[in-house]
Amino acid sequence: MYINIENAEKTFLQNGKKFTAFTDVSLSIDKGEFVCLLGPSGCGKSTLLNTIAGFSPITSGSIRIDNKEIKEPSVDNVMIFQNYGLFPWRTVQKNVEFGLESKKITKEERRKIADKYIELVGLENFKKSHPHQLSGGMQQRVSIARALAVDPKIIFMDEPFGALDAITRMKLQDDILSISKQEKKTIIFVTHDIEEAVFLADRIVIMTPNPGKIKCVVTVPLKGHRERTASDFLQIRDKIFELFNMKHDESIEYII
Prior knowledge:
Elements: E1 3-14, E2 17-29, E3 34-38, H1 45-53, E4 60-65, E5 68-69, E6 77-80, H2 92-97, H3 107-120, H4 136-149, E7 154-158, H5 166-183, E8 186-191, H6 194-200, E9 203-208, E10 213-219, H7 231-244, E11 252-255
Parallel strand pairs: 3-8, 3-9, 6-7, 7-8, 10-11
Antiparallel strand pairs: 1-2, 1-4, 4-5, 9-10
Helix pairs in contact: 3-4, 6-7
């Protein structure tokens, strides 16, 4: 397995008291897999994402990527947040080129790479625009293009479409699913939306709160283009909802 998490726990001190964000988390993820961490607010899914990405150390247990223990963020991986994180003084082109500027490549090569990913996210007519001239969905496309431009091994996504309207959200779900298949990237995606998880994921990790634990892991057997109104999609969505509300707390793997 490419990513291995074993008996991981993360605790904080809050007002002098110990708070456990998640505990006893064990999970393995293959290279090229799209995994969604699904759960309600407060279940530790974003904290878990940050520990896998190396932004926050775990308290106990281990997290290894490609057999290397994670102690800090890696330049090989990128994080995409809900708030886009674009530089307002830079154009779309220059925002996408930003991560490439520390690499030993020519200005012309940076431009070609940026152009490729700007076109991939459908913004080739907005290369000279600044973030304030773009809609929220377009800004998130820029963020995705910037992440892809540096050719990351893993893309971490923390509810990246949560602030968008429903139509834009669905369009970006279509786009990121298409891009993930085309680029063959390993993606770990945090969401509290069951339908979003079913639409995107190869596997869904269902988490429960107080403290955060893995309730079960579900393999989604949908191949090719996914239709949100298709009977097989709706059956899987309903089954996930049923599993989400089951009383057991065992880390069981399901194929549905």
